[in-house]
Design brief:
Blueprint lengths: L1 H4 L7 E4 L3 E13 L2 E10 L4 E6 L9 E2 L3 H11 L10 H14 L2 H11 L10 H22 L3 H24 L1
Antiparallel strand pairs: 1-2, 1-5, 2-3, 3-4
Helix pairs in contact: 2-4, 3-4, 3-5, 4-5, 5-6
């Protein structure tokens, strides 16, 4: 456990599964109910939120460093794949999509983005589909932006360009 407590330092970008990419802004020591507790203080700029995570719980809640370049490449490659649309009820699919987004796994998030993406020539999404798509796309873009040291809109453009190119290829194959 001691090694885990030292794995993040002030200034590190980290991924907290339920909230996405944040930055360690401080290491705090607090006494709560008579017990001394070491805490990571995380700042999530997009949500304007600060979160305190006990250092000994960081691993169990799934907090991790940014993905490796290989993991990001896998996620971006996933975006190029053919969308998999299940014919189950929307409520069931929505739950599955939310679980994938909250897992913090980059490839799972990329699957949600790929499956819910709609090109301009495709039927419009429902409001809830669009909400989940935007949440997943934003989560993926924030990690990509932190890794490539660009802003989130720039990363989002890159993701949408990949999706549009893939949709054009898949639509041509389907029409043939």
């Amino acid at each position: 456990m001691a090694a885990q407590a030292l794995s993040f330092v002030v200034g590190d970008y980290v991924v907290y599964p339920k909230h996405g990419v944040g930055r360690v802004i401080e290491l705090q020591s607090q006494e709560i109910a008579g017990a001394k507790l070491e805490l990571y203080v995380l700042r999530f700029e997009k949500e304007r939120m600060t979160l305190r995570v006990p250092t000994n719980k960081a691993e169990s809640v799934g907090m991790r460093k940014l993905s490796s370049n290989a993991q990001m490449s896998d996620a971006l490659a996933t975006l190029k794949g053919k969308p998999k649309v299940k014919r189950t009820m929307w409520s069931r699919r929505a739950q599955e999509y939310e679980a994938k987004i909250n897992s913090g796994d980059l490839v799972s998030i990329a699957e949600v983005v790929r499956d819910l993406f709609r090109a301009e020539d495709q039927p419009e999404q429902s409001y809830s589909e669009r909400q989940i798509f935007e949440a997943a796309c934003s989560r993926l873009a924030r990690e990509l932006a932190a890794m490539e040291q660009v802003d989130e809109p720039t990363a989002q453009v890159k993701i949408l360009d990949i999706l549009r190119a893939a949709a054009a290829i898949h639509n041509k194959v389907a029409a043939a």
